[in-house]
Write a structure and sequence with these properties.
About 0% of the residues lie in helices and about 60% in strands. By secondary structure, the chain is mainly β.
Length: about 120
């Protein structure tokens, strides 16, 4: 069983910063790409940032230059540093990871339960 547990959400004023963290736990062989997605009320879930095991990154245009994704392979964690936050960043943020549970199995996609980020104007 693989679990992704997020932390670090909250309420912040526009222009402020927050740091989200996510830890993968359970029984697995390795963790591949990890990422953050978000879903605002009435909108579809969208990619925010993704990082490969070798630390190649990709960002949504809307957060490029403001958010930074990083990971610690030894701890199976991924973080998202969010600076210069805007009200439109308000959403539930979900951690995502591609996990290889066992060598002879295919990688599987896992999601955290989400953490609320609210940016007030």
């Amino acid at each position: 069983q693989v679990q992704l547990v997020e932390s670090g959400g909250g309420l912040v004023q526009a222009g402020g910063s927050l740091r989200l963290s996510c830890a993968a736990s359970g029984s697995f062989f390795s963790v591949g790409a990890m990422g953050w997605y978000r879903q605002a009320p009435g909108k579809q879930r969208e990619l925010v940032a993704i990082i490969t095991r070798s630390s190649s990154t990709n960002y949504a245009d809307s957060v490029q230059g403001r958010f930074t994704i990083s990971r610690d392979n030894a701890k199976n964690t991924v973080s998202l540093q969010m600076n210069s936050l805007k009200p439109e960043d308000t959403a539930v943020y979900y951690c995502n990871a591609v996990v290889l549970v066992a060598i002879m199995k295919s990688p599987e996609n896992y999601w955290g339960r989400g953490t609320q980020v609210t940016v007030s104007s």
